[in-house]
Design goal:
homodimer, alpha/beta, Quinone Oxidoreductase, Chain A, domain 1, Rossmann fold, 2 domains, six-stranded parallel beta sheet, about 30% helix, lipid biosynthesis (chains A, B)
């Protein structure tokens, strides 16, 4: 009886109801993305009983994707592979053993390294997270990495109270923009440091854009240096650093007693010249935040789903807007990748995150 | 009735049974110690009801004392003042309201900045800690700062288990010597980094001295670099840094996942060039330890007394030896202070802590 059931299930699991090919960007060796990436159309194999066929529609390109291709990221996917840790799409078909997902559901990958730079992919049901269908595809695509990073950095290190203050550099980054919006929701002030632009007009336009996202004080490093009344924004209990190098001192210097500096990026590619005095006498802490590390470690899926639900509610109620982005069709992936590689020159305005878009599979 | 009682008590409180002068080292302004320190004999005033007259017999000179005189330490005593945060002596006389101390008791200051570089001093009973009378005066004098620092750094940051490993630089320092002895007691391995001496023979003698104190591995930084089998000493979960600057990287590099680097000194007077990758991807932490800060903060006197009792037991049972020292009579204080000022040149052998000794007041 069991044998018959298994045989039936095996037949069923191979019965993908139509022929599907996935357009995917791939790499078979590490190197500079434009040198090693190539395009490949791949036929989608039969679905196993717990498999889910996903049609990706939007896959953001993050710095960690670029670093993964370069081979400088600690997560090393098996090669040849498809890059991309983030994306959103719709379920096209499910294997017979799939119970929590159905065709039409909006989903995102629940793990890192699942490869999102492709129009279609097959995963085990357990590897996907079902999202609120009210999210539009871009809100869904950007839900995971940057908002979760902002959220967890705000929640995990110090017990922030209304009236406290957060300081951050790289304020024009997507994480920076979510930090200032979430802080505003929580009644927490933010001091946001950004680089002056080429002209005073561009600098003012960038500042205004960040103020519109809810930043309390938006200043260049020089302006902060001259700022006299910094105390009035509250106790600066935590700093978020994605720059590294000497500019990080602007944060360390202003942390309150027992403050924490959390580093989540190092765009300046320079170590932090950590002064010993404040570490000892102000009881400061330097910590690092890595979303994938924490996720892998904690294994607390329920807490993660609750967080994603809270962020979803904020987005659907308009309390949090997604950071600026530019959608580029996957056929133009070379231009999308090229625009995503970090360059030291100062952007003219607020940087936009690049997202690869894929067509709907009908 | 109350008025008569108060008057009687006032009379009593002035009745110091003999004339006492204190020989004390003082400074009335900040500067280089040998420039600003001077000697002064001061008559001891009347004892208040809760006052205790202490005859200091041994007062160690710590780097923090030198920095306090230089004005670079965050604790700023009222000037003119007597330097010294550490010392041990015997109670000579007590005011009538003193209940927990009596003449002959062995005591040490229970707070920072009480000024120990003097033969006699009057404190409120609450400012003193009564020590086990079995301790000899040198064991008592060195009980507080260095052993407490080692103890609290080992207990407060990670939950060390037998078989784990601690890495430290400045291993020839007094704190370093207590760290390796306490770790040995706790079944924890230690990797101890020291500077090579002028000759190979001196280097070997220094290494042997540290091995005799219980260090598991005692190496120069170059030797550690070439060491291949570091894993066999256990998980390196915490590092203790009193050097700072680039040499600190030797510790950071070898910390295990989620390891903590605790900085308690900065003899190299250079910031720590903290690499961002390990902070983020290895979830490392940089913390600072300041004994006075923690004591002031916690206010947990019971825990502190329990710790001092545990350290006392270890010393009395011979499980922990006090770090090498040199006792210098207070009359020769200039030489004592001069020997205590940190110099960059490499010592020929194991450095000895300097302790000012004062005569018994009979």
């Amino acid at each position: 009886m069991l044998a018959i059931k298994n045989a039936l299930s095996a037949v069923k699991s191979r019965s993908l109801s139509r022929c599907i090919s996935s357009c995917q960007i791939m790499f078979k060796e590490h190197g500079e993305p434009l040198d090693v990436l190539y395009e490949k159309t791949q036929d989608i194999g039969p679905l196993g009983p717990n498999d889910v066929l996903v049609n990706y529609r939007a896959s953001p390109i993050n710095p960690s994707d670029i670093n993964t291709i370069q081979g400088t990221y600690p997560l090393k996917p098996k090669l040849p592979g498809v890059p991309g840790n983030e994306g959103a799409g719709y379920v096209l078909e499910c294997g017979p053993g799939v119970s929590k997902l159905k065709p039409g559901d909006l989903v995102m990958p629940g793990e890192a390294s699942l490869g999102t730079w492709r129009s279609a992919a097959v995963y085990n049901e357990s590897q996907l997270i079902k999202l609120n269908p009210k999210l539009d595809i871009m809100q869904a695509a950007f839900l995971n990495i940057n908002p979760s990073t902002a959220y967890l950095m705000l929640k995990n290190y110090v017990d922030l109270k209304p009236g406290d203050c957060v300081i951050q550099n790289g304020a024009t980054s997507a994480v920076g923009i979510y930090v200032m919006q979430m802080c505003k929701l929580m009644g927490i002030n933010t001091i946001n440091i950004f680089r002056a632009r080429e002209t005073p007009e561009m600098t003012e336009a960038t500042r205004q854009a960040l103020l519109d996202f809810g930043g309390t004080l938006v200043v260049t490093e020089d302006e902060l240096e001259a700022y006299e009344d910094i105390q009035r924004f509250g106790k600066i209990r935590i700093g978020f650093n994605c720059v590294g190098g000497k500019p990080t001192l602007a944060l360390i210097k202003r942390l309150d007693y027992s403050g924490v500096l959390v580093t989540y990026g190092g765009m300046a590619r320079q170590p932090i010249p950590t002064p010993i005095g404040p570490l000892i006498f102000k009881d400061l802490q330097l910590r690092g935040f890595w979303l994938s590390g924490r996720e892998n470690q904690s294994g607390n899926k329920e807490a993660r789903l609750a967080m994603l639900e809270e962020i979803t509610d904020w987005i659907l109620s308009g309390k949090i807007k997604i950071a600026p982005f530019e959608s580029i069709p996957h056929t133009d992936w070379k231009s999308a990748v090229s625009k995503s590689i970090f360059k030291d020159d100062i952007p003219r305005n607020l940087p936009r995150k690049i997202v690869l878009s894929f067509p709907e599979i009908l």
